[in-house]
């Protein structure tokens, strides 16, 4: 059992490192462009932290998807992920996308 836990932890660490490197690459080398929020997915869960003031209350998170045109003129839809501020469908935002994989995008941080 300990071996399995070790493998899971090791896998998570590798995933985190790869994600950080990808985000760093997009920040430094990504192509900045304008995108439109194409859809917003709402996710809810119940707060199970008994120490929390909001115990047993619903908590919401949001996943944002954007559409933009890449350098080839192709329309791409990509998951933007959680944002510190609320976005709505139709909002225009600045993003940076990976030249290696255009579905990897980050907010350009207006």
Folded structure, characterized:
This protein is 25% helix and 38% strand. The chain is built from one helix and five strands, in the order αβββββ. The protein has one helix spanning 2-29, and strands at residues 31-46, 58-69, 75-79, 92-97, 105-107. Strand 2 (58-69) and strand 3 form a beta hairpin. The longest helix is centred in the first third of the chain and has 28 residues, at 2-29. It starts with a helix and ends with a strand.
Provide a compact summary of the structure.
It is built from 1 helix and 5 strands; from the N terminus they run αβββββ.
Unreliable stretches? none
Mean pLDDT across every amino acid position: 82
How is the biggest beta sheet arranged?
A: 5 strands, antiparallel
Q: Enumerate the strands of the largest sheet in spatial order, edge to edge or round the barrel.
A: 3-2-1-4-5
Order of helices and strands: HEEEEE
Strand percentage, roughly? 35-45%
Helix fraction by DSSP (H/I, runs of at least 4): 25-40%
Number of strands: 5
N→C terminal distance: 47 Å
Tally of alpha and pi helices: 1
Which term fits the overall shape?
flat
Class by alpha and beta content: alpha+beta
Roughly how many Å is the radius of gyration? 17 Å
